Every structure is written in C-alpha cells, then in structure tokens.
Amino acid sequence: MPEILLIHGSCHGAWCWRDVLAELQAMDQPARAIDLPGHGADPTPASDVTLDGYARAILDAIDTPVVLVGHSMGGFPITAAALEAPEKIAALVHVAAYIPASGRSLAQMRFDWPEQPLAGAIEKTGPHAFVFRDESHDPLFYHDCPEGTLNFARAHLTPQPLAPNDTALPGIPKVPRHAILCTEDRVIPPAYQAHMARDLPPGHVSELPTGHSPFFAAPKALAERLASIARAA
C-alpha cells in the first residue's frame, strides 16, 4: 500500500493535517505531511517561492511512489510534481482543490467562475504575498470545525506567496486522478469543484458534507476516503 503524502493549501502548512495524520496512523496507513517552501516552518522568503519550487520540494520528499494529496491551492503543486516525475506518483487526490486546466494559472481559474466568495477576503502584505483577512477566517474557512480550530489556525497561518498562484501549467499529468468535493465549501464553490472534476472517471469523484477545511471538520471521514484510494492504488 503506497504512502500518502499530504500537501496543504494557501497560507497553511503541514500542521493543518494534524488530525488526519492521527486517523491514518490509527488505520496503519503510512502518511506524511510537508511544509511547502515559504509555509509553516520553512523559512524561504515569499520573493523566492515559485510553483516549480513547490514541485521540487514535493519530489524531494518522495522515495517510492505515493498517493499525493493536495488541498485547495495544493492542487497546483501536486499537478506540477506529477507532470515533472509521474513515476513517483501512484495517484493524485484533489481535496476541495483547484484541478489545473492546461495553460491557466490558479489566479485566472479563480475568476473563471461567476461566484467570487473570496472577494474582499484577500489582503496583500507587500509585492510578493497576501493573507486572508482575519474576519474571513471563521465564516469562510472554519465555520463547521470544532471549537479551538480558529485559534489553532491563526497561530500557524503564514502569508501566501503570489508567484505560484500566477503560474500556469502546460498540460495534464498521465497519472490516476481523484477529487473529493466538499459540498458546504464557502471558499471554492462546490459547483465549481464539480465542474473542474468533470473529466475525471465517475468512480474517482466523491463528496464530503463539509466546508473548506475537512481535515478539521471531518478528519476521520477524510482519512477513510484517502486510505481507500491508497488501497486501490
């Protein structure tokens, strides 16, 4: 059974997978989470962070083929890694994530959908990064999460480098791809998640009745879904 490698989304880090990792460990499913450059404990300055750098960090963390899981923005770096070294990837899993379209950056894809729930929630911190405004954290990201989640997240959130979000990818990787859609998501509209997953095999698309942070809202259910994909891979 391949290891699961968990990749976070914008402003987050490996810390957000804490509860999912505990559930996977209880199932004897090998799993790890890493900080992308400029996130969590990684000290890379935002000005030096690129999508290629994200992909290199992921591939450097892989020794044998993994089930590579990306949340939200993490859909782009996991795809970039799979394009560069598909032999290292047993499957990709997009969790409430952007599923890249060839030639479109994440920033472009966000505006491809009529609903814009992040309008007004993003604040630039300088020429190279942005944050989500404090008042957006609870209603958009953690509204269905257990008590204490908001304080835990705020203690760990970091600015999001801009360059990776402005970089398009040249194609679609030739590896199995899965999507877990979050039906109560207030960040990436559920209908848009379904639209991005429309070309995946029907058996590779499933739903969780959570908001944008299923790793906090439903860690056991998410872990079970990921472990099932790993067993099949």
TrEMBL record:
TM helices/strands, residue ranges: none
Keyword Metal-binding carried by entry: no
Record keywords: Hydrolase
Pfam families for the chain: Abhydrolase_6
Chain ranges of the AB hydrolase-1 domain: 4-224
Keyword hit for Cell division: no
Identification of the protein by name: Pyrethroid hydrolase
